[in-house]
């Protein structure tokens, strides 16, 4: 039996070599393209990652620049807002002055008008008082003899103006 074991031992090495060669062949035939495509994917992923990293760094640099300029921008916005506020205050002040001037002119005109009206009313009242006073004085002086004399004079004046008396009308 020894002989069968030795023969069997002899075939182990060629079988092993044949199996190893077959494995190497299959790995090279099917494994190499798989490894090549996988390494290509990894390479592309690395390139995309580096590109994304460069874009992120550029974006971060832009953000840093904006942050660095933020104080200046805030100062500029505050200055602009302050200037706008001053312009608006000046506009409101001018409008208020214009409105006050208009009100003053209107008030002055109203005062003049009221003064004229008061003067006219005062003159009318003074004339009314003078007429009342004159009437009272005349009534106080009027006697029945004076009334008849006035009546006779009046009728004489009227008759001298009548057309039959030769007077002119």
Mean pLDDT: 87
Largest sheet, strands/sense/barrel: none
Rg for CA atoms: 65 Å
From the N-terminal CA to the C-terminal CA, the straight-line distance is 192 Å
Secondary structure: helix percent:
over 70%
Q: State the oligomer.
A: single chain
Short description:
93% of the residues lie in helices and 0% in strands. It is mainly alpha-helical and 169 residues long.
What does it look like?
It is a single chain. The protein has a domain at 19-58. The model has no long low-confidence stretch (mean pLDDT 87). The longest helix has 140 residues, at 2-141. The protein has 2 helices and no strands. By secondary structure, the protein is an all-alpha fold. The chain starts with a helix and ends in a 9-residue tail after the last helix.
Furnish the topology, listing elements before pairings.
Blueprint: H1 2-141, H2 144-160
List keywords for this structure.
mainly alpha, 169 residues, rod-shaped
